Amino acid sequence: EEQLLESGGGLVQPGGSLRLSCVASGFTFSTYAMVWVRQAPGKGLECVAIIGGLDDNTYYADSVKGRFTISRDNSRNTVYLQMNTLRVEDTAVYFCAKRGRGLVAADSWGQGTLVTVSS
Amino acid sequence: EIVLTQSPGTLSLSPGERATLSCGVSQSVISNCLAWYQQKPGQAPRLLIYGASSRATGIPDRFSGSGSGTDFTLTISRLEPEDFAVYYCLQYGSTPWTFGQGTKVEIK
């Protein structure tokens, strides 16, 4: 069974930093692209970062470009989201997800971790 | 950035009725990389449809997707009690991936 488990969320002041982790199991992690998606309280979904499987190419939403960095450690089956210069509007539940093969979209999701940016 | 617009914002229906949800896209979706997700309160999204019309593993056949280019539809043929939720479309053919704002299907 495929599983994704996020951690690292919490309360941080504006301008601060936080690193989220997502540990994967049940599939060959290194061969799949991974995605971070966030959801502000009561709002919709926003894809913030993507990292390729075998090629490690990265992509970011304009709202986080230059502040967030996605990376992966295939030896630990883990994908990270380093979040710097956090803003109040970054407050959200952050989900990690696995992109499926070929035309399959994000098909396995973690339960999410809450990040609250507040003074 | 590609913009997705879902309609209606809220759909009020009774169990057993048919639900038709629409997703309009600001430019043609590459390779029909359009997906539909279901989300219930406090839960992660669940993949229903990918490639515009392919059902994900374990998804009942009352869920179907159609469309191409810039206009896509999710149809739930007969609503079951567990289908009342929020539904999102996602285009993943171009980066950044973008979601629609969601359609809430509520019990009438």
Report on this structure.
The complex is a heterodimer of chains A (119) and B (108). Chain A has no helices and eleven strands. Chain A is mainly β and 119 residues long. In chain A, strand 4 and strand 5 (45-51) form a beta hairpin. In chain A, strands 2, 4, 5, 6, 9, 10 and 11 form a seven-stranded mixed β-sheet that branches. In chain A, strands 1-3-8-7 form a four-stranded antiparallel β-sheet, with no helix packed on it. With 108 residues, chain B is mainly β. Helices cover 0% and strands 49% of the residues of chain B. Chain B has no helices and eleven strands. In chain B, the strands form two sheets. In chain B, strands 2, 4, 5, 6, 9, 10 and 11 form a seven-stranded mixed β-sheet that branches. In chain B, strands 1-3-8-7 form a four-stranded antiparallel β-sheet, with no helix packed on it. The radius of gyration of chain B is 13 Å and the shape is globular. Chain B starts with a strand and ends with a strand.
